[in-house]
């Protein structure tokens, strides 16, 4: 599920579309009319995310994809319903878009249930910080709403898209599962599965139902699938769709085929679920709801996400404090000026500054973050040149080192037996409430 690269390609025409796949929702964002410089040439697909200088134009994506922005009213509503402060990813607009989130909140307010579904494509030995984002947020949702969660490890996808053997994909899935478990998920509410091991029976029946109702032209428009791609790439979208339907998990949701599903994910996964929402009611299920995040940028800037293929673009959960310090100091794009004198005069450009963006993700204290970003006469602040780039990077190194060290301690406690327990086919009698 990683994305990267900087290819620019014209949008394909959309055929056989419905309300969930509007013509404006083509992913390769190179429209010719009323295009902003930041949006011109940006590419956002499940397999490729890139943009020219200025980064991803998220407003354009919302308009193209047909999703809705998460506003302050929704954030306040979540806080009221769960009786806890909103996660920093919500209050800072990192999870910024949704599909039918209010429907899920209406159900919850009325005393009804739903379940969570998210996933990971296991293509690397360890996760980087960008990979942690959806799992950190999903854990918050699980804890706040007290609902079950299914986590899909798409080892089949990585065999189809990467130069990896099936055996290696299966091994990486288990290794990634250990990092996911280390995030703190409740085993009484969580089922983790790998596609290669789990697919069959009801899950496969739902795949077939999706496959019969999605045309090749729709896949071409949504995902860039071409006649030259192997047929595995044509079939896989139905694999990612199936967990949206509760009957795919009879050991959990038997007899509850109308249970609603909420999917936390990055916005590059939206096309998979637009396709899923297109067919859901046609095959007797509710449409899944989505809550979608912006991208966690590479150390070199916002033109791409972090990429597992470039170790210097990413902070890994296996990095030491020394490695983190080296990467931040050497590779993290600064919005500061070229000299101290100029920086004191002009201040930092926070729109491009990666250390500030990373602190926005991971520094919990809102007051401290605002103190760094904004000007107050009695303090040193970055935007006004009263705080230097080195000071901001030093604070970031402290925050990331603590985060990664905490994760490493939790990961060291995860055994093979714990992975087996999370993946065991078993009922979860305490999964609600």
UniProtKB/TrEMBL annotation:
<keyword id="KW-0963">Cytoplasm</keyword>
<dbReference type="GO" id="GO:0005737">
    <property type="term" value="C:cytoplasm"/>
</dbReference>
<dbReference type="GO" id="GO:0004830">
    <property type="term" value="F:tryptophan-tRNA ligase activity"/>
</dbReference>
<dbReference type="GO" id="GO:0048608">
    <property type="term" value="P:reproductive structure development"/>
</dbReference>
<dbReference type="InterPro" id="IPR014729">
    <property type="entry name" value="Rossmann-like_a/b/a_fold"/>
</dbReference>
<protein>
    <recommendedName>
        <fullName>Tryptophan--tRNA ligase, cytoplasmic</fullName>
        <ecNumber>6.1.1.2</ecNumber>
    </recommendedName>
</protein>
<dbReference type="Pfam" id="PF00579">
    <property type="entry name" value="tRNA-synt_1b"/>
</dbReference>
<comment type="similarity">
    <text>Belongs to the class-I aminoacyl-tRNA synthetase family.</text>
</comment>
<keyword id="KW-0436">Ligase</keyword>
<dbReference type="GO" id="GO:0009791">
    <property type="term" value="P:post-embryonic development"/>
</dbReference>
<dbReference type="InterPro" id="IPR002306">
    <property type="entry name" value="Trp-tRNA-ligase"/>
</dbReference>
<dbReference type="GO" id="GO:0005524">
    <property type="term" value="F:ATP binding"/>
</dbReference>
<keyword id="KW-0648">Protein biosynthesis</keyword>
<dbReference type="InterPro" id="IPR002305">
    <property type="entry name" value="aa-tRNA-synth_Ic"/>
</dbReference>
<dbReference type="GO" id="GO:0006412">
    <property type="term" value="P:translation"/>
</dbReference>
<dbReference type="InterPro" id="IPR001412">
    <property type="entry name" value="aa-tRNA-synth_I_CS"/>
</dbReference>
<keyword id="KW-0547">Nucleotide-binding</keyword>
<keyword id="KW-0030">Aminoacyl-tRNA synthetase</keyword>
<keyword id="KW-0067">ATP-binding</keyword>
